[in-house]
Amino acid sequence: MDVRSRTVEKEHNTLRYHLLFQFNDNSRILWQIWWGVSSRRLLMEKMWLLDAAADGDPEKLYDFHRNRSLRTGSGQEIKGLIAIGSVLSVIEPSEATQHHEKVREVLDWCRRITSLELLSPVAMRSKDRGTPGGIGTRGQRLSGFLAALDAKTRGRIVERLADFYPLQTLSTTRKRAGWVDLRIAEQYNIGAVDAQHVSDGFLRLLALCAIPEFGTQSSLVLLDEIEDGIEPHILPRIIERVVNDSSAQFVMTSHSPLLVNFFPVEDITLVFRSEEGRSKFVPATALKTMSGGLEYFGPGEIWANSGLDTLNQDALTASLAREESRAASEKADPGSDLWVSQFMRRP
Q1: Are strands 179-186 and 128-129 parallel, antiparallel or unpaired?
Q2: Most CB atoms within 10 A, among 4, 31, 62, 131?
Q3: In the predicted model, what is the mean pLDDT of residues 206-217?
Q4: How does residue 340 score in pLDDT terms, banded at 50, 70 and 90?
Q5: 3-state SS assignment for residue 240
Q6: Distance between CA atoms of 22 and 29, rounded to whole angstroms?
Q7: DSSP letter for each residue of 286-313
Q8: What percent of the chain lies above the pLDDT cut of 90?
Q9: Whether residue 275 is found in the same domain as residue 201
Q10: Which of 69, 87, 111 is the endpoint of a domain?
């Protein structure tokens, strides 16, 4: 299953998400969510199914409105629902739609989202016990995760990391009450050292190299400021290696033009503030700044060599154009959801 975020926007204290799920049979699900930032409540939610036929009309699976009523695809109405997250967190998919198996796949994908946005070398140095299924949001379970791996799996992490760091072995020792000590030996014959004495950069590299071993328990991995503590010459190569070795999709934020330069422009999104202070997002392909120089420069080079005011104005112009286009689509047929069909068919 392939998942793409078509739009994520914040307007008037409302977050709007539009996620498109492509299944192996070429059918697609569009999931639209409006969530109140101040109220911390779900405002609206809709889910659509488009079958594999290119001319197939979208089928509304369910519709949740601000009046707290849920209308299912079969015409049933459930009133009085109050949801912090998706309505699917409080009702069974089979109650909302007859296509509940596909909806269940969407929910399974969501439950396997892995956030590593708060990775902290301080947390990664802490001892852990037990056999966790991951390394934790801050990396605090790293030692326990490594201790639970078999020798072959741990060897893959060592091999992956050894391409970028003079690592020889990783060893874990389980102490009384299950606490795990993590020790690292480099290729300099100076013996193994405790995780307390290795650099921040090494621990971040170790955490990144462990991601492919999450396997199918992770559908999407979130990483923030991916370049922190990592030598810039190896940064693009290790990201490429980790992504290629992993079955998960990745969403990463970065302020490194060097790293951005190694990504296709289609995979890059610019985050900026509007004149009112709202967070907005535009694909890099929508920026005139980018389109004018990609024949000769990488996207990171264009970003680094463009004035901040120029980029902000370019992003604002592109964002306004997208909003006007969407408003025009909705105005064309305000009594229906025709624009949803157009949205789903866009390449």
Answers
A1: antiparallel
A2: 62
A3: 93
A4: low
A5: helix
A6: 7
A7: G-HHHHTTTTTS-HHHHHHHS-HHHHHH
A8: 36
A9: no
A10: 111
315 contacts 288 by C-beta, under 8 angstroms: no
Side chain identity, residue 84: I
What are 166's two structure tokens? Answer: 């003079």
Helix, strand and coil content of the chain, in percent to the nearest 5, comes to: 40, 25, 35
> Which residues neighbour 246 within 8 Å (Cβ) at sequence distance 6 or greater?
211, 212, 214, 218, 221
Is the pLDDT higher at 76 or at 259?
Answer: 259
> How many residues are listed for the chain in this entry?
347
3-class secondary structure, 25:
coil
Residue 7, SS3?
strand
Distance, in Å, from the CA atom of 214 to the CA atom of 105, rounded to the nearest integer, reads 19
CA atoms of 261 and 82, how far apart (whole Å):
44
Contact between residue 268 and residue 308 where contact means Cβ atoms under 8 Å apart: no
* Inter-residue contact 127 to 54 (CB < 8 Å): no
The pLDDT value given to residue 6: 59
- Token pair 């975020």 is at which residue? 5
Averaged pLDDT score across all residues of the chain? 84
CATH number at residue 158: 3.40.50
List the domain range (segments joined by +) for residue 84: 2-111
Task: Quote the number of domains for the chain.
Answer: 3
192, two tokens: 């193994």
- In the chain, the percentage of residues whose pLDDT exceeds 70 is 89
Q: Note the pLDDT of residue 335.
A: 43
Q: CB–CB of 289/302 below 8 Å?
A: yes
Tell me the CA end-to-end span of the chain in Å, nearest whole number: 17
Query: What is the residue whose two structure tokens read 């990664």?
Result: 124
Bridge partners (DSSP) of residue 7 are: 18
Domain stops at, among 111, 145, 175: 111
Tokens linked to 320: 């306004």
Q: Decide: 16 and 39 in contact? Cβ < 8 Å.
A: no
CA distance 233 to 163: 13
User: Is 272 in the same domain as 250?
Assistant: no
Which residues are bridge partners to 72 per DSSP?
Answer: 62
